[in-house]
Amino acid sequence: METLITVLVGLLVTVAVYLLLSRNLIRVILGSAVLSHAAHLLLMTMGSGLKKGSAPLLGENAASYVDALPQALILTAIVISFAVTAFLLVLAYRTYKKTGTDDLYALRGFDDE
Amino acid sequence: MTITLSIFIPFLAAIFIPLIYQRIKSRHIGWFVIIVPIALFVFLASYIPSIANGSTYIHTIRWVESVGIHFTTYLDGLSLIFGLLITGVGSLVILYSIYYLSERESLGRFYVYLLLFMGAMLGVVLSDNLMVLYVFWELTSISSFLLIAFWYHRKKSRYGAQKSMLITVSGGIAMLAGFIMLQSMTGSFSVREIVATIGQYTDEPLFIFAMLLVLLGAFTKSAQFPFHIWLPDAMEAPTPVSAYLHSATMVKAGIYLVARFTPIFGGETVWLYAVSGVGVFTLLLGSLNAVKQTDLKALLAYSTISQLGLVMSLFGLGSVALQQGYSTDSVIYTQATFAALFHLVNHSTFKGALFMVIGIVDHELGTRDIRRLGGLMAFMPVTFTIALIGSFSMAGLPPFNGFLSKEMFFEALLNARNLEVFTTNSIGTLVLVAAWIASVFTFVYSMIIVFQTFFGEFHQERVEKPINEASKGMLIAPSILATLVIVIFFFPNVVGNYLLRPAMIAIYPTFAGAERLTPHIKAWHGFNPALWMTIGVVVLGTILYRFMRYWRGIYTIAPLKWNLDTAFNAGLTWLENGSHFLTRLYMKGYLKDYLVYIFVFFIIAVGGSILFTGSYSFDFSDDSSIAINEFLIVLAMAGAGLAMIFVKSRMTAIILNGVLGYSIALLFVVFRAPDLALTQTIVETVTTALFLLCFYFLPEWKKERSGKKTKIFNGIIAISAGIVVTVLGLAVQGNKMFESISVYFEDSYRLAGGKNIVNTILGDFRAFDTMLEVVVLFIAGIGVFTLIKLKSKKEEQDIEDQ
Predict the structure, then answer these.
(1) Is the ipTM of this complex over 0.85?
(2) Residues B678-718 pLDDT 10s
(3) Where are the transmembrane segments (chain A) (predicted)?
(4) Which residues of A touch B766 (CB under 8 A)?
(5) d(CA B442, CA B310)
(6) CA closest to A50 among chain B residues
(7) Which of B590, B698, B722 sits opposite A11 (nearest CB)?
(8) Within a domain: B427
(9) What is the CATH number of domain A2-53+65-99?
């Protein structure tokens, strides 16, 4: 399972990097969203074994629980990546309103600062 | 203790000046400021008797024990001379500035800078710890920068300020390196301790480097060749500043450093050659350049350079005594140092007076160009008298103090001719001749100041303002200095015994008992060679001055025409262009390029180290099983991901992103992570809604116009990045090096009183992280809000409204 997920992570990273290198603003934002998906999954596989034990709720009274630490980290990461995506989207909206383009090549700065 | 406090009093006063200035917005603010230097002068002067009796005062505030940096103040004869100069000339300069500066200037700012400088300068001369000394040293550079750029609307002021800053601060950094070398050799930052133990370390390989680096600091600060070029440009500062910083005090910080380090480095021949060689050359160059100036202030600037060179060369010659060790014969060489200290004091008096006089001329007539001036004697008798005293003292004529120190200078040079270290007699003679020629030119430019400004015919139409004698207030300060010039001539031994002798002991600790360490200064000592040299200077100088228009032409021929400024400016432009070129090479302004740098670096650094260390061994034995439904989810995600690259419509792309997000939520369920699954579902929903909302305002995707090559290039980077991440992930999973800390959190009920482990981690164990996460969310929220709501002035021109 871990191997399968890691390969999936690699694939998602490939997609994300390709999108990030695009010249369209929205594709770049999508790329960053996909990249955070990949990161979350990668974090998940870093725990002490997937599916080994029950959900980390002590009320279950299970013999063993899955690793709770990556879950806590991912929870934080999900929220942060949401914040980043939201901010980037509004930034894209504002950029388009100001400049009339969403092409990053056309958005290149002036020659002298 | 009180000595330590005296460094901080100017800084404290500087804090309060703006507050007072808010109430009293007139020149009278200066009367509050002047209290500080006068009080400090009186305070320091009260130490003269006890210091003259051989006491020294030391006070330490322990600071950084681990590296040996302590706030140690040390008052001995040498610091006392400088302390008195700083506060004494400081008082006079402030008094002068009260009448000199117009009330329209921002006086509050001016006095804050001036006090800042005064505190920093006192810090330099009173600190015993090298690191503390360095900090104050750089502070003087910074306050000098601020004062030169006081009239910052002028381009030349800004240029002069920048130039002085660049040169003195680079020298300062070299000096810092020298200090650190000294510390690494001797294990101490304290000057006194280094002086006491340096004998054991003179053979260290770093010793000479440390010496040269420290000298670099001293030479840049004291405007010695080839670093003298900043001083003439620093003359853009208001005249009180020029009189104070760039003639009487700051430029003498380098001299102070040389004097202070003479007991450390003075035993080496390199020190003699470096200090004296540079000094004599600067003396000659400065005096030659001064003669050709037409701006009186520039003339004084070059004359200051030249006089600083003179003092510098004397300190170099004085070090011979240390090289030869203590004996009755070697004491004679200490006279050079004595002459240096004496001339230092004299120079501050006559040069300070001259600067103030030039300031008065500029202030009253609106010009200081000697080609437009002349005949001022009749209109400005007091100013003329002061100028006469100052110039004649500078020229080395009796009955002024400059005569005494100039004679001693010649005598020291005559003594030095017999030195063994000057392997052949010719070097000693060469130095002597160079110094004598320089003195002739010093005489010539001193005459230019007096005769071309105050004699001849006065032409009202050539000056900007109607001619008047300066106000009494403005004349007080230069008059006091001019009086001192004469008083010192008649009572030189008061200065010698009370100020110079303790300083000599500080420079020559091993010679403390020697009787001839403080020679008795006599104005008349018979027709000896030194006097003949002076007579020669006067005769040749007068001839040269009379016939100046016939030989002025030499300044247009090669070596005299050369100007180091050109080289400096060219170097600066070259540096700017070079760094600009380098930056432009990689800062292209395309987001894509920057991302490429990041990813390529990641691939090379991480992928490379995986390959290099051979850590790509995998271990799949511990993998969990794969159920068919899980496999299907992964397959769906892979399909959705790949499809995102190729879709034509943004709507499809966002739906595919949704597929990814919800699939991850499903995977979280499989992985026994209920909290994550819930959060992911909600966040994914909101994100998709946000995307759709933004699509309403944004244009439809255009087809990517990138060429095939770019696409392949991007693809290669993307695939490489994916492979590196996969390999890295697999390598980490197969080779766990450390025990997981996760078990700790399973005790969450006892430790944090919660049964949901994930929640306790977020809300208790790592609560600070969560709080900061909320802060990030909050900041992003503010960002979103401002970007949407904030209306710029050109709103009506926006695309949306068109």
Answers:
(1) yes
(2) 999 999 999 999 888 888 888 877 766 678 888 899 999 99
(3) 6-21, 28-48, 68-93
(4) 72
(5) 11
(6) B671
(7) B722
(8) yes
(9) 1.10.287
